[in-house]
Fold each of these.
Amino acid sequence: MVTLTTEQLRNHFFDLLENELEIEIDRDMIKGDTDLMDELGIDSIDAVDLIIGMTELTGVRLEPHEFKRLRTIDDFVIALSDAVRNA
Amino acid sequence: MRSNSPARIASDIHDRTTLVKFRILTFLEYLPFLMSRLWRGIATVSLFGLFGLISLLLSLIALPLLSLCIRDPAQRRSTGRLAVSGACWLFIRAMSFMGVLRYTINGRETVTASKGLLIVANHPTLIDGLFLLSVFRNSTCIVKQQIFTHRVTRFVVDFIGYLSNNDPVEVITQSIAILREGGNLILFPEGTRSTIGKPLDFSRGAATIAIRSHATVVPIAIQCSPPTLHKSSPWYAVPHTRVRFEVNILGTIDVTDFVESAKTERSASVALNNHLLSSITKTTKGRLRENA
């Protein structure tokens, strides 16, 4: 398991968006409360890919019941940050 | 314009004897429909009861016996799936024999391969899976988590290696693994039963699994008329007329074309998903064949 800061998690999340999902983002403009589905056009399969990508980095898996409440970038980063801390 | 309904005609008859005669004749005219509906109601309740009994027997007797006789887990799973497939076939044959429904399955000859098939269908009714399982015998399904926690059904789904829909990450990774090993998988990309009156909407999951596993895709369009056993209809609600099912197997799709013509895996899966959605939607909008 890798210990990462919230900022590192956020940056890795942006890397996944750009490299894996090929979504163009402006890192300076994008906000924590950006809605992943409505504003970035992410669907449920993209969300699965993001979870797999973040799991590979942190070694921590989010519980399935947590998936549905992940709406924004901050939701993702905070959930992972909590999961890493509690692991 | 005034209607010619029996109630309207009766309101125009003022002679009592003529009115009684008219009511008796109207009742006799409708009697066959009433008897047919009553019979189909009795048959439906009996057959669903039988289905529950078969599930119980499979769970408590047949599958435990199989696990004692067959040691190899893969062979045990495969034999268990054949037993389930046989039970599904028996159930739909019994429904047809008892007059609850009529059905046709078209296009079986278009599927020549028997391994590594991803079967993708729309999901208008509760019993679609039974038709598909009776045709594609050694197939895995993705089922609701509740079935894995139910005291009767959990043993069956565990034994035959069905997947739970509880964890989307596991669903994707295990589905790909099953198809790469040559197994068959049945998927309903709507995720739940169709909503009557709304256009079909497919999640990209099935297409993604197909692209990543390079499975052969078998699109299937299921039609049911009149609508029954849908999302807002309880299993015991009997339609006015006998139900007609048509299961149309729309050939096979080699995903290589989609992979090669797309820049990314994601765009390949989007294109495949759109193709599946349009071909299945187009067929479901067509009229049922008269011989169905």
Amino acid sequence: MSERIKIFRWRAIGPLLVLFVIAGVLWWLFADTIARHESQNIGTQLLGAKVEIRYLHLDLAHGDVTIKGLTIASPHEAFKNLLQPDELVADLDMLPLTEKKLVIDRIVANGLRFGTPRATDGRVPAESGQGIAGSVLAETRAWASRFQIPVLQLATGKIGVDSLDPRRLSTIPAADALGARADSSRRAWQTAFDTLRLGPTLDSASATLERLRRARATDLATINTARQTIDRLKRARDRVATVERNVKTGVSQLQAGLAGLDSARQRDYAFARGLLKLPSLDAPDIGAAVFGPGAIKPFEQALYYAKLARRYMPPGLLPRAATGPSRVRRAGETVRFPKERALPAFLLRSAELSFLGYAGRLTGLTSDPALYGRPTAFAATGPQLAAGAMLNHARSIPVDTAGATVGAVQFPAFDVPGVPLRLDPGAATTQLGFNLNGDTIHARFAIRSSNVRWTRDSGFANSAIGNLVWRAVSGISNLDVETRLSGALEHPALAVRSNLDQAIAARLRAELGAQVAAAEKQMRARVDALVNAKVGPVRARVTEVQTQAQTQVAQQRARIDELQRNLEQRLRQLLGGVRLP
Amino acid sequence: MFTLIKLIQSLFGALHSEGTPGQLAAGIVLGSFLGLTPLVNLHNAIIFAALVLLNVSFAGGMLGWALFVPIGFVLDPLFDWIGHALLLDVSFLTPLWTSLYNMPVVPLTNFNNTVVLGSLVFALVFALPLFFVMRWGVARYRVTIGERVRQSKGYRTIMASKAYNVYKLFKP
């Protein structure tokens, strides 16, 4: 009898227990380090910028986490931090951890600092474009790049139109197409006339008229023939009328084509004007050119965080997939399955922030707003600061609102695009209003400063237009810029207004108006010279085709009418008013 | 190099151990779970405990693990696809996943990750065929060339290595 094989290997319990004890000891020794590394990795992945932690201590017995030396880099600026708290203490709810859910009852952050410099580039997905943060960053960059900011180009040399390439003018191909259409119409109408076969009908009617003139009232056969001929003439006239209608339609299309040539010529004027790089003399264009590039950045950044919030805090309770954890094996996707009346995967009930005499409070930050049921709210106040934000994703259409007024913000000096000038706004008051309701955006960004300083680039000291703009703005010490964005998120309208617009525009108009007008006249003449060589013959051909077709129709119709009238008149003479059956 | 030697030792150690072909095949199947699924997950702790506590070939388990790790890497796209289909495309399973996701402990297994679930389901489906094929293969090996290999100089050299002693601790 064979020995029965045992199912359990009891002697292995000891080594297994030892293994578990070793694992427990290792956890106890390295839990803080592991948690620190994991927090750094997850934070970096979530925010799209490096998150660094100098010290992290887990006190699971009391449900406390203490973090010191936290640095969150800016995802938008290479060598700048987004925020840096001195110390952060979180009070965790331990029970949800068994469901792999992180519920933080309260966070207290002390010594927050914003925008501090850093030694290395902290932007992580900016290069790779991977992950949620990376894709959102790429989306918002693409969104910002779609704005067509007019360029304030101040030509310093001779204005010329030598670069005008006739192949890039739209009037010439349009004229060619119209000429071909005129030829086609001419052939079609000629074919229509030929198929009318009016010659035999008219010849027969002329012969009948001759016979009728010699006939007497008793010559019933001739009279009947005359009546039949009149009927044939009426039918022929109907056919001519049909052709006439076709000709009228075709003529109106050719006329529209001629009008289209005029529109194309206007577009070509605009295109050629762009080649001249003439300075814009319109105030709104100048405002957009000078402040547009800088003014879009706050909107781009606000949109980045709003979109990030929408991706991490989506409305509704549908399963949500996100990129899985980084590991040697493929990350895959990790799917969350929110359930009514269950805890969210992440919830920060309340956070209290304090920084340099300012105080802030954040409530209801959660991964599942539909479960939490209330919007995420943020408010901060202090000297020269009032800020608030609300992310309402509890309903099906998310609404994200933010507003801030910050005084005495020291903006860095910047080069005014296209002009050899540098503007230092000094200490300014800024206002940002942002509302993203579903896919509709309304945003406003304003800067006000009363101690603006201007400096000019010495390399452009001899630039006439540089001097011109310098004279226009150097005496202005106030700056008041307002940028507004409104409309559908994909195609919002951008409006930039500033007190410098009118000043620069007026000065430019006064000094450059005559020069610009002369250059435009020269440019128009060049376009006309190129275009007229094509458009003139086409216009003549269209007119000829129209006239020919209309004349042909009129002649045929007149001939038919005349014959019919003569036949009817002769019949009346013969019959003397007697109606025959 | 050391890994390769250990793998070869593991292979021959398992094939010539005193365990039955069934014990060896069961060990390989458990090891295949460790190799096919991403290692750092709660279910693998249970698999490892089973490999240690159950009277199956531990060497077979190590062999299965070593053999199936590269296969796991290669099949990751397939696991991702299976997991994605099960978690997101099969709608009647959604209530099950929702319940499991909101239970204590279960989410710690990372079952809601497409690669983890896909590889685990694949390993489960693959387990029985693998068991029978391995049991048949080991039996055939032992009755055909097994004894000749045992008597060979190369086998004795490999088995003389001290590292082999580690495996002997858990031999069935």
Amino acid sequence: MIVVLIEKNKQRIRILSVASITYIDTYFPDAIVSNHDLEGIADGFDAEKIGKKIGVQKRHVVMANETVLDLAEGACKKLLKRIEPSTIDYLLLCTQTPDYFLPTTACILQHRLGLPTTCGALDFNLGCSGYIYGLSLAKGLIASGQAKRVLLVTSEIYSKHIKTDDVANRSIFGDAATATLIEKSDEDCLGEFVLGTDGSGAENLIIKNGAGRHPQKDGSDDDYLYMNGPEIFNFTIQAVPPLVHNITEKNGLAGDTIDYYVFHQANEYMLKYLRKKCEIPMHKFHMNMTNFGNTVSSTIPIGLKQAWEKKSISKGNKVLLVGFGVGYSYGGTVITINCKG
Amino acid sequence: MTKNDFLAELTEILEIDGELTTEAPLAGTDEYDSLAIMSLIAFIDEHFGLSFSGEKLGKVKTVKDLISLIGEENIN
């Protein structure tokens, strides 16, 4: 679909470009922590019980000298084996654990990847909703003619911000990065977006110390990632079902015309309940976090890549994506699969 | 929901062996951890359409108190 805008005064016609996701690549650090490795650190931690409940058996974590930038570079270099770097004209990087307060990680990444200096680059700070917001921004950049090839990167290393004996969070989260190419195309493959924000939940998933409000780390638990699991669960089961309804409605689709659903892979227990509540058939619902855990903004592109490689999705399929979490921030869209790899 | 069905569901949520009585303690027991509370939130949402904060559920002392919170008219 091509939308034509007519500016009344100037009588100028501008054609809004449309966009597709054409390539996705993923990158995981080498080190792996299994559930078994987490046993004996804190009282009451039962590796078998936790693995069964949250659906995670192992997760990749960075070493002390690895950073978000390193993981991002790893994901991008895989993608740029197939795409000429000089053709990238915008770099969007989603992270909450950047290398520095400043400069922007995306700027350093532009240099490391050898992207042209004419390339726009910025970081944006979002967690589990980040991929959806990245797609939304990429669509806007392409539609408005500001970019033709946007490289959207997600990279997160929560492991560096979780206390060693916090086995609950260590068992859920994993580190990873992904790179997605969104480019101007003949077919409109990024649908309408529904976005949402509720900052009243900010305290329920937070690292309090070390930034502007509490600059000094004081050795307390506030130096580390805190998650109020039950409250995040409460928020999610209230927010996501109406969000899914609004996404299908805004895209003019009935639920049964959606070929596949990729939700943010928070934990399997939550996903199973959301699937039931949203009345989504099991075979259309992506759930695969056994070997990676919750990789925050990377779970949706990892899920898309897995689904593409397992042929759960194919060209022309309509796939509903939903992200939700820290902020609170949430959003979703429907994409039409137009992947080249 | 009958009280017996409720107790059976709660036994499964807490993953305990044996029978649960209305006098059984919740807060402070090993079984009543954050995973159990997450399951309880889902259970209450699905069967009663109610929502309670994790903090409130975490402080419930006994099964009887949990039934009072959900509403005795819902579990009889």
